[in-house]
Write a structure and sequence with these properties.
Chain lengths: 310, 335
């Protein structure tokens, strides 16, 4: 009798599993149901990321190659007189193709934002987990550090660091890291504070789990979804921060390009060459908007209490 | 038997003894005397029931034994918990971790929230096996499925991959029991294992625990306020009131010949279905506020037999003269 039940169950598993695999993509799409805006944002974001990754194969021109004769050409679909691919988004003050610079600039902007969120997220999350779990003086020290640092405007702190360290992509990343870890620490701590009181933690201690095992094996998986939301939203924030810093001249240095730097460089031509500022501004806006939409979707999707609220 | 022989027998049989355990909680309103001088011992292979109403310190006693009290606000102030000749209250965390699970396993009150929602139940049982039996991988998985079968979970192989939210409350409690048993404990503490389950499931779980006890022969400490469960499962009973042990006796004596007025009070609250005219008795008054326990015997404000001395002097917890292992905390025991 009981054997019958087991074989039935095995058959069920065997039937179910291939079907699950086949529908993996469909099941993913279904998670977006009722939120087509998030789906569009997600697709746009993926396109931007893909274009950034494959920039050398996609960009029609070398982003650093100047061509003074054809400087400040307005956007046009017609092939230029010298031949070659049309300057769809025009050329800048040195005759460089704006589209190509946008594509390569995205690479820089995205990689700075990604590196900052990856490292600051990891460090901040671990610090937050530890200080939330242990409480006491550990918590006191880390959280006062966070308080002190957040009493200064983030951009100001980052600017100071870059002024001391010298501009450039690496130092910009370090500066934004120093500014960016706190929010993750705060977020992780607040989540752990409630999770550590749960009977689940008590019962895992009762079977003899060690502290790291409880913290990273039991608590972290249960608090990760609001943290993922923070990571996504911080991506948007960091893209903005990178643009700000580069605009001010303390971020990415020419001849490399980033979206913020392009706006900064095009600023003085804004009256007669609007395309130098509008297109990078537009792409920053679109990216940040998409990241926010996806971030909101992640929060709603993984937190059942948020579902249906907008 | 000579006194030394008596002692030798006791030493052989006693697997866990708690002496003078004091756990207080320090909150804004003051100091809660949650556990105030608890003494108990557990003999090998028996089922000891710890009985008392809500808030009398049963669970706090169990958690204090394994040093699982959240601190702050709680603190174990004094006492000894002797297990295998070692005092659990004065031992290194790393040593204590080896006792938790393998030596003494705990089943908590809330099966609903005691399982990790983001892991499959199989993986959680496997974790208990890996931590306590030193088996890994495929072998541990087989053992885990064996444990699921042991606690009578149907289709154990497919249930292995279920998440806690896919199981009912009774099933979750079975998983919790499987997890505790997977540690191969010498003592299993079950803290109101059926508190949040409905009556039919309660009966099933209790029946399961009885069967498992027969099969495996673990020593069990059963914490409960259900006297029906006590009558059915326990060998000996320890009655707690307001953070203290008031009486310990074999289960027969507790029901038929209680020594403490409080024990008599709670036994008389049981319904007698044969006698239609029987009115249920109640114990007048409320349990004392443990922030500020009454002077003298803690039961004195509700006790029908209280005299002057009861209001002044807290009685000692002492062996009843001429009895076989009966202890009571009362100036005027009823036997």
């Amino acid at each position: 009798m009981s054997q019958d039940i087991q074989t039935n169950a095995q058959i069920q598993i065997e039937l179910r599993e291939p079907e699950q695999n086949r529908n993996a993509f469909q099941r993913f799409l279904r998670r977006f149901s009722g939120n087509s805006l998030a789906l569009i944002a997600f697709i746009v974001l993926m396109v931007i990321i893909a274009v950034s990754i494959f920039a050398p194969y996609i960009a029609p021109y070398d982003p650093a190659k100047s061509d003074i004769v054809h400087r400040l050409q307005p956007p046009s679909l017609a092939a230029p007189a010298k031949g070659g691919f049309p300057h769809i988004l025009g050329t800048d003050q040195q005759g460089r193709d704006v589209l190509s610079r946008l594509i390569y600039g995205g690479r820089v902007s995205m990689s700075v934002a990604f590196a900052v969120v990856a490292v600051a997220g990891a460090i901040g999350t671990v610090i937050g987990l530890i200080s939330g779990y242990f409480g006491g003086w550990v918590d006191l020290v880390f959280m006062r550090l966070v308080d002190i640092q957040s009493s200064f405007p983030g951009l100001l702190v980052a600017l100071t660091f870059v002024m001391v360290l010298g501009p450039g992509q690496r130092n910009l990343t370090i500066a934004l890291l120093i500014v960016g870890w706190m929010i993750h620490a705060r977020m992780a701590r607040s989540q752990v504070l409630t999770a550590r009181e749960s009977t689940m933690v008590e019962s895992s201690r009762a079977i003899g789990c060690s502290m790291p095992r409880i913290l990273f094996g039991h608590i972290l998986p249960n608090v990760i979804s609001p943290l993922i939301t923070t990571y996504v939203l911080e991506m948007a924030h960091m893209i903005e921060a990178e643009a700000n810093m580069s605009f001010l001249g303390y971020g990415i240095q020419p001849p490399a390009s980033s979206w913020g730097l392009m706006i900064g460089e095009g600023r003085q031509y804004i009256t007669n060459a609007w395309w130098l500022v509008v297109f990078p501004g537009l792409i920053i806006g679109i990216t940040v908007l998409c990241l926010n939409l996806v971030g909101n979707w992640v929060r709603e999707e993984f937190d059942p209490l948020q579902k249906g609220r907008h | 038997m000579s006194p030394s022989q008596v002692e030798a027998v006791q030493q052989r049989d006693t697997v866990l003894s708690v002496k003078n355990l004091v756990t207080h909680f320090f909150i804004r309103e003051g100091e809660v005397h949650a556990v105030d001088g608890v003494n108990l011992h557990v003999e090998k292979g028996e089922t000891l029931a710890i009985v008392g109403e809500s808030g009398c310190g049963k669970s706090v006693t169990a958690l204090s034994m394994l040093r699982l009290i959240a601190s702050p606000p709680g603190k174990v102030l004094s006492g000894n918990v002797i297990f295998q000749g070692q005092d659990l209250l004065h031992m290194k965390q790393s040593q204590l971790r080896k006792i938790r699970g393998k030596g003494i396993a705990l089943i908590l009150q809330e099966p609903m929230s005691s399982l990790n929602p983001s892991w499959t139940i199989g993986r959680q049982i496997m974790e208990a096996i890996e931590l306590n039996q030193g088996i890994k991988g495929k072998e541990a998985k087989e053992k885990a499925i064996e444990m699921l079968k042991l606690v009578r979970i149907p289709a154990a192989e497919s249930r292995f991959n279920n998440y806690p939210h896919e199981l009912s409350g009774g099933m979750k409690q079975r998983v919790m029991i499987a997890m505790a048993l997977a540690c191969r404990p010498q003592i299993l503490i079950a803290d109101e294992p059926t508190a949040s389950l409905d009556v039919t499931i309660q009966a099933q779980i209790m029946e399961l625990m009885k069967q498992l006890k027969r099969e495996i022969g673990t020593t069990v400490i059963l914490i409960t306020h259900d006297l029906g469960v006590v009558a059915e499962m326990a060998d000996r009973v320890t009655i707690m009131y307001a953070g203290q042990v008031v009486e310990t006796a074999d289960v027969f004596s507790i029901f038929h010949n209680p020594a403490h007025p409080y024990t008599r009070g709670i036994v008389r609250t049981i319904m007698d279905l044969k006698d239609k005219n029987h009115r249920l008795e109640v114990i007048p008054g409320d349990p004392p506020n443990l922030l500020n326990p009454p002077p003298g015997c803690r039961f004195n404000p509700r006790c029908a037999f209280a005299k002057e001395i009861c209001r002044e002097k807290d009685p000692d917890y002492k062996r009843v003269k001429g009895s076989d292992g009966r202890w009571v905390r009362c100036h005027f025991p009823l036997i």
